[in-house]
């Protein structure tokens, strides 16, 4: 560190150095030496005569050192009463830099003749280590009430959540990042020429990491380089696939606090505008909505999107040259790789396109991250706990082709995947409801979502199937601060809407067929002719009784009926 970086003016000392270089003494002047100076010179020669030059040099050095020490104490005492000296600034790599060093120390070093590139010891790096609410706070004793006894509604529903007021949540935002266990430096693979040696799944966007590279990426070390999408370019979003405009890339680089992100591809969902957002969040939070060109065309033709690129709080960011034909797989890019798209953000909240945010972002982060001292939070599935059950449900709903799902499950079984049981507690589920992800952008959580994305890129796009494998590999190696909360809590801060096709069906008018009324009755028909009913004209036939075999026929019929009934019993028994 140079004197200039410490804010020390050194121009006057530069002139002295030039004088020495020219062979001149710094005390040479054009005046004649005075009588007092001559007496001092005689005293100096007298001391040298009796003490010797070496001892005189040591004596002068001690005197100068004592003078400097006393002067430093005097100046330092005065500076103790001043505030603001030695302010520390935290830079991106979590180190502490010195922006203002005490001038007394530097000046003393100058007087003593030491070099000005003084290096001061740095304070240890500071981290956020969590907090506890004060005793008696209502949230400390908050418990979930039992679900309402409504037999008509048995599906998922929201439950109460104890949020702090917005102002309190804002005040509790950590000033320092959370610690990243083991991993401190994370970089990402860039391949100008893609290597497909030992190919086992992958894509041109995410690369083709071998199985050995995959296994090595779970060996968490202090410094790592991994595949994490965007492998064909040095800057994500610029000729890498999932390309974005330069002004959008610059806008996202300036997001240095909280990011709320969502995406709609294939015009599959409506744009749901957030509600109940504080004015402070409107000014400090970046709301990013990623869309493809199909969705952009619809938004512009419907008049919702103009030149401002804004719909309410959302900044609409158009992604072009999508690397996948499957819109759901393309949606995993901003969902899991948001730290690459908004590289300076500290926290992010991901919402699927069908969700509407109804709680302030600071309250959500305080409740699910900061209060739990977590760097990653996700909700569990409201009904399923086991990956094997989740795979069968995906197959039954035709979410992906069955052969690919079976291959992925079999691969994970060979790696040790087992059904979920209570033995895995305190992990409450192996299946997340992945439509919401809350996380802090520190190296360890960034690595987690990178490797989760690599599984989605290598196998099926159903991220619920691959989640538990990545999580368990992490937890077996590092103390990953992971928090899984209840699905009913998630439903408290987001409202789930219908997809566009369902909304259009619900909004379609009901067509009622118009049936014309029956025609009016015509004139009454003419009366029928009257029949003669005299006894002479009427002949009533007399029914003759048959032979006396009625009882025998009835008995035979009853026997046949009993046989048929017996036969039916035999059939039902089989």
Automatic annotation (TrEMBL):
The lineage of its organism: Eukaryota, Viridiplantae, Streptophyta, Embryophyta, Tracheophyta. This is Uncharacterized protein. It comes from Trifolium pratense (Red clover).
């Amino acid at each position: 560190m140079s004197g200039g970086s410490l804010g020390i003016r050194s121009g006057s000392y530069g002139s002295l150095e030039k004088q020495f270089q020219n062979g001149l003494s710094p005390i040479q002047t054009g005046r004649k030496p005075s009588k007092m100076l001559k007496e001092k010179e005689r005293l100096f020669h007298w001391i040298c005569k009796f003490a010797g030059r070496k001892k005189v040099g040591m004596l002068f050095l001690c005197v100068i050192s004592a003078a400097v020490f006393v002067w430093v104490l005097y100046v330092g005492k005065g500076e103790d009463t001043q505030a603001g000296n030695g302010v520390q600034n935290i830079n991106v790599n979590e180190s502490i830099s010195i922006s203002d060093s005490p001038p007394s120390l530097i000046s003393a070093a100058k007087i003593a003749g030491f070099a000005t590139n003084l290096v001061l010891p740095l304070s240890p790096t500071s981290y956020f280590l969590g907090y506890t609410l004060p005793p008696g706070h209502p949230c400390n004793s908050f418990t979930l009430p039992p679900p309402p006894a409504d037999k008509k509604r048995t599906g998922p529903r929201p439950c109460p959540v104890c949020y702090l007021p917005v102002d309190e949540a804002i005040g509790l935002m950590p000033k320092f990042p959370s610690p990243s266990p083991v991993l401190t430096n994370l970089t990402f693979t860039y391949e100008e020429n893609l290597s497909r040696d030992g190919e086992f799944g992958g894509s041109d966007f995410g690369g083709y990491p071998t199985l050995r590279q995959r296994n090595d990426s779970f060996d968490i070390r202090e410094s790592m380089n991994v595949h994490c999408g965007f492998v064909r370019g040095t800057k994500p979003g610029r000729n890498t696939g999932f390309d974005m405009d330069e002004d959008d890339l610059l806008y996202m680089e300036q997001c240095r606090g909280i990011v709320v992100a969502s995406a709609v591809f294939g015009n599959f969902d409506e744009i749901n505008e957030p509600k109940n957002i504080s004015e402070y969040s409107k000014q400090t939070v970046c709301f990013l909505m990623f869309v493809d060109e199909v969705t952009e065309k619809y938004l512009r033709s419907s008049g919702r999107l103009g030149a401002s690129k804004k719909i309410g709080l959302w900044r609409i960011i158009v992604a072009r040259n999508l690397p996948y034909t499957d819109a759901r797989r393309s949606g995993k890019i901003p969902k899991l790789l948001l730290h690459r798209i908004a590289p300076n953000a500290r926290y992010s909240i991901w919402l699927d396109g069908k969700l509407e945010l109804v709680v302030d972002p600071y309250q959500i982060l305080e409740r699910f991250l900061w209060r739990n001292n977590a760097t990653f939070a996700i909700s569990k599935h409201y009904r399923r706990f086991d990956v094997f059950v989740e795979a069968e449900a995906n197959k039954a709903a035709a979410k992906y082709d069955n052969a690919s799902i079976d291959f992925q499950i079999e691969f994970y079984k060979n790696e040790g995947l087992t059904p979920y049981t209570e033995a895995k507690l305190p992990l409450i589920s192996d299946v997340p409801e992945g439509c919401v992800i809350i996380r802090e952008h520190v190296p360890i959580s960034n690595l987690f979502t990178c490797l989760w994305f690599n599984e989605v890129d290598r196998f099926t796009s159903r991220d619920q199937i691959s989640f538990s494998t990545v999580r368990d590999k992490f937890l077996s190696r590092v103390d990953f601060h992971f928090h899984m909360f209840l699905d009913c809590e998630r439903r408290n801060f987001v409202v789930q809407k219908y997809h566009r096709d369902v909304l259009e069906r619900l909004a379609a008018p009901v067509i009622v067929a118009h049936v014309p009324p029956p025609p009016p009755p015509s004139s009454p028909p003419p009366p029928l002719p009257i029949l003669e009913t005299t006894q002479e004209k009427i002949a009533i036939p007399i029914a003759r009784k048959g032979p006396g075999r009625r009882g025998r026929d009835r008995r035979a019929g009853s026997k046949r009926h009993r046989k048929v009934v017996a036969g039916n019993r035999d059939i039902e028994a089989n």
